[in-house]
Structures are given as C-alpha cells and as structure tokens.
Hints:
Blueprint: H1 2-29, H2 38-48, H3 55-59, H4 69-77, H5 81-86, H6 88-99, H7 108-118, H8 132-144, H9 156-166, E1 179-184, E2 189-194, E3 197-204, E4 217-220, E5 223-230, E6 235-244, E7 247-251, E8 267-269, H10 271-280, E9 286-290
Parallel strand pairs: 1-9, 7-8
Antiparallel strand pairs: 1-2, 2-3, 4-9, 5-6, 6-7
Helix pairs in contact: 7-9
Amino acid sequence: MKRFRITSRLVAPLVVVLVGTGACTFDPQSGGGGGGGAAPAGAAEQVTGASGTSGPDQRGRPTPAAPTAEPTSSATTKPKPKPTRSTPAPTTAAPTARAAGCPQGEHQRAVETYLAQLGGFGPVAVDGQQSAADCAAIKKFQKRYGIRPVEGRAGPTTFDVAKRLATTDPTRCKAGAGTTFCVDLTRQTVWALRNGKVIMEPTVTRTGMSGYRTPSGTYAVNYRNPKEWSNPYEVWLPYWQHFTQGMGFHETTTYLHDKSIGSHGCVNLLHADAVRMWELGKVGTRVVLVGRRPGT
Length: 296
C-alpha cells in the first residue's frame, strides 16, 4: 500500500505538468494579446486569408488533428490551383482594355478634324472612331492647353478649345514692325507676331467677364513686373505686362477653362504661355485686341 501511494503521487504531478504545457502552447498561437482564443483566431484569418485552414486553431483543443499530414497536404493542394488559374484571367484582361484607347467623347470626329488641321499632336484618323493614336493625340492636346482631366476623351471643353484655336486667323491682327501681341476676344485666343510672322502660335486665354469687358483696340506694353501684386483684388499676378487701364497679360491661378468666371479686364494665360510672352515682350511691345468676348 505504501508503494502504490508513492507511485500515484509521482504520476499526478506529471499529468499536471503535461496539461500545463499544452495550455501555454495555445496562448502564444492565439496572439498573446489577451482576450481569449476567439479574437486571436480572427486575427490570424485577416493576415493569412485562409479561413478554411484556421478552423482547427479556432477550436483550440483539437490541435493534434491539425498538424497531421493529410489535412495539411489537402488544404495546401486545393487552394493553390484555384488562385493560380483565376489570377491570370483578370490580370490579362485589364491591360487589353486599357490598350484599346480612351473613352470616346460626343465630339470625336470634330476634334479629330481640328487636331488634324492644327497639326503637331500626332497622327489622327478623321473617322469619328476612337483609336490608340487618336487617344494619344487628344491627351497631348489636353495637356498642352491645360484641359482637365487628361484622359483622351473628346468632350465639350476639348471640342471648344480645339475649335477656337483652329478657326483663329493670325492675319486678322494688323501688326507693324517688331513684336506684336494679338488677342482675339471673340475666340478667346492670343498669339504673337514679329514683323508680320507668327512667332508664337495661337493659344488659349480668358479675358474680362461681364461688367469688366476687355476693350478692343491698339495699345502698347508700358509696364512689366515678373510678379505684380494686385491691390484691389489682393492676388499675385505672375509675369505681369500692363497695357491699359490697369489691364495686362499675366498667368492665372484659376482653371482657365471655367467660363463661368473671368478676369477683371486682364488677359489670363496658362503658365507656359505667360512665360513665353514675358520672354518675347518688353516695354513698348505693340498690343492689338480685336472682337469682343461673348456675353460681355
């Protein structure tokens, strides 16, 4: 009887030690962040994305079944072929759709016609059908004239700008000797001549809005400043070239193609065009404005 009691006392601690070791093993696998076993199992799903293989871990106790060879190999074998076969299909389709070109706008044929007339934007086919070449040409045009978004779609703004530029007649500006800045108020375009020859192709502008009409006539640049401050409107006027009544050429800080607004008589320019006209102009440069902005 004494021997049996001694043996039972020795076996009992061994059982306790083995059970305790098993419990400590589950805690680290479940995250070790506290809060029990259910939450850590969910965290493992978010990281691995394999909700099917994390089932045994969520239960906690049936751990011995999870490490066996059969569940591991079958779980690994089945998911792999499915993602491998399904992944290439969308990956291959997406680039094909993008390579086809851009969305086709409601003014496709007209924009193609104007771009072909203007030249310099790449080959376009005047057929009213969007193509990769048309898309590239329209994007280049939109980028050059500050049209947003640059997506290659022949929408209303792209159509309007292309039409205004293509129908601008540089010879309408009666230029004399030297450099002349010309503004077509009707088409809202501006260009530069030197001794009667175009040295800056027609580009877009925005002049005075209703109540602040920019007047037509012949003037001359009489004051220049790389960065002028406007006292009444408290705004900087980059590349300022004044020609009459507080009006002048300058870069605009707003979206040039927003027709709902306009200047207070000044000739607004895109950055690149303001810089170019600053380089070409000087005090005494002739300024000729013809026509009248619609609605003013």
